[in-house]
Amino acid sequence: MNATQKYTWTNEQNATILEHQAFHMNMTTFLNKVVMEGPTKTFPRKPKSNLKQVIMTKKTKGVQKRSHEQLHAYLVENFIDTKKTIDRDVFLFKLEDITTEDQALEKLKDGFKHLKRQNAQTLFFFIQYGMLLNAVYKKFFELRIQGVITITWGKWLLENIGIHPSYARRLRECAKSLGGYFKLYKVGLSFTEIYKLKKELVALFNSSPEMNTFWKQNPDICPTQEMESSQEVMTLPTL
Q1: Minimal CA–CA distance to 222: which of 86, 123, 82, 88?
Q2: Are 112 and 87 in contact (CB under 8 A)?
Q3: Confidence check: pLDDT of 62 > 90
Q4: Is the pLDDT of residue 219 over 80?
Q5: Residues near 189 by Cβ (< 8 Å), separated by ≥ 6?
Q6: Highest taxon of the source (predicted)?
Q7: Considering the chain, what is the average pLDDT of its residues?
Q8: Domain ranges across the chain
Q9: CA triple 181-125-211, angle to 5 deg
Q10: For 68-84, b where at least 16 C-beta lie within 10 A, e where not — what string?
Q11: Which residues is 228 bridged to in the sheet?
Q12: Chain centre distance of CA 154
């Protein structure tokens, strides 16, 4: 719409605008009078109609979804070596030992690497636990039908394990959708982010046979006792 064109409002919208316009003109006159004459017992009545709802445009988030290729690249960029242990000593430091920008950057980079490694391990635990929950649920359902167990699944979990049903549901959903895609166990992203991406990830894995095969590859998750030490961190000098 150019400067010479007038926006076309509906009759109802136009009436609301004119009503508020008149109110603000009356309010200006009223306030000028109060300034000159002092306090008053009357006050202009504000319109009941919602002007903001009429004249404000709705905000749009404008979030653009990644393509399958972009999502795949994002996940691969966040691959982490899960065969190495997480070194807690990285996070035990004294602020006075960090005296230069290079030391600060080195410490932050090393710490972030360990955070991503922790994320990958946590994702592995969460999905595997979700798969365990799904397996137990099948057995629970059989026992419920037989009358061996009489309470609900949610109550049984809460009373015996201390897990809230909604939390268990998220783990089970994630395991059902992503449980067979073992390559995810190398991704150093948080479980929360992976859960939010669940539908996009399923679409990615189903986008082509090659993509499906890639993400179903076993990343060789090794037992804890076979993990390698991650003692490659820089030791900051004590001044």
Answers
A1: 82
A2: no
A3: no
A4: no
A5: 75, 78, 116, 119, 120, 123
A6: Eukaryota
A7: 84
A8: 11-55, 68-226
A9: 10
A10: beebbeebeeeebebeb
A11: 84
A12: 25
| Type of residue numbered 94 | K
d(C-alpha 62, C-alpha 59), whole Å:
9
Structure tokens at 108: 């932050």
Other Cβ atoms closer than 10 A to 46: 11
